[in-house]
Amino acid sequence: MEVAVNETRDSRLATLGFDLDRQRLAREYNRKRLPLTAARIVAYIAISAWLLQGFTFQLKAWASIFGGGVSQVALYTVIVYFLYWLPVMPLGIYGGLVLERRYGMSVQGFRSWLGDAAKSLGIGLGFSVLMVEVLYFLLAATPDLWWLYAWILGLLVGLLLTWIGPVVLAPLFYKFEPLSDDVLAARLNALAERAGAKVVGAFRMVASAKTTRAIGGLAGIGRTRRIILSDTLLNRYTPDEVESVIAHELAHHVNRDMARLAAAGAAVSLVGLLAVDRMLRAAVVPLGLVGIHDIAGLPIVGLAVAAMSTLLGPIVNLLSRRREAKADDFAVRMTRNREAFRSTMVKIHDQNLGVADPHPLAEFLFHDHPSGRRRVEGADSK
Q1: Which pLDDT does position 178 carry in this prediction?
Q2: Other CB atoms closer than 10 Å to residue 209's CB: what's the count?
Q3: 3-state helix, strand, coil in the chain (%, to 5)
Q4: For residue 247, is it within any domain?
Q5: Domain count, the chain
Q6: 339: containing domain
Q7: Which of 24, 206, 314, 334 is the most buried (most CB within 10 A)?
Q8: DSSP character at residue 212
Q9: Residue ranges of the alpha helices (H) in 51-145?
Q10: pTM for the complete prediction?
Q11: 128-156 pLDDT per residue, tens
């Protein structure tokens, strides 16, 4: 039965133009990544349970070496951050370097990969310390409304990161330069103008030293919004296909999808913060916390956020897939080039080892874009 199902699926994908060898490789690649994700989840839960058995209070005592308050919160956060990071570091090396190179997704050397990992660690650690410091200040200062203030601050931080992302964060990992193809740049800028989206220009991202994936889209907001095209995309896609990629991204601007998804994300984060509040209050007496502002309760915060993200993630993904499908429709209408959009979807899934026809349950739970097969069939139906 399974063989017949696979043959039917492969026949359908071949008819649509997908490379069956690449799609088999994509399924194999994604199957091997799944246990890594499961192992990270198990490790996270196990470490959290261990901390909540009482070790969190020992960490709190160690973190008070320089006194209480800000220094204690910062030191506790740093210790806990590394407690979660160290056990999964081998998984990161295997999944982020070994597996990526084995399947041809990465061409990055170990030293370069280690440098990027160190930057990510530094950014993640610094952001976590700052976030926890603000969170526990609010928990102590406004215990009844901390969740509301944290929610508002979270929205503002999200906007800030979106704004500085392409000009501060992304250049830490990739080199960017103005697109040298003046004809293509003019064509894409004109496309953005037709869509009513102001961009500062089109930029080439030098990605080929690290990855073979094709990357293209819009980044930033306001005065930092720009068109980003990786050299791995520019070298393999026609101008019509590149235009289709950017037309899809511009559709999100025209349809106000970013605002819609931001609103959905804001609603999810508000529900999550309210859940954290309830779980913290419920844990005070059983765990022996001083109050909800006790830094020893931080593992409860982490577990609550992870649980709510897992529960509400499929709903956000469903909304995202619907907006992405509408953006596909808009891109085809805007460019009036169905064939270019179609070929782009086929090529990008094959190149990036994206499974074009995932299991419906996997698509529902984990995918924020429609499957490649659906996107190609959608273009064919226009």
Answers
A1: 96
A2: 12
A3: 75, 5, 20
A4: no
A5: 1
A6: 22-172+255-380
A7: 334
A8: -
A9: 56-63, 70-93, 99-102, 110-141
A10: 0.89
A11: 999 999 999 999 999 999 999 999 999 99
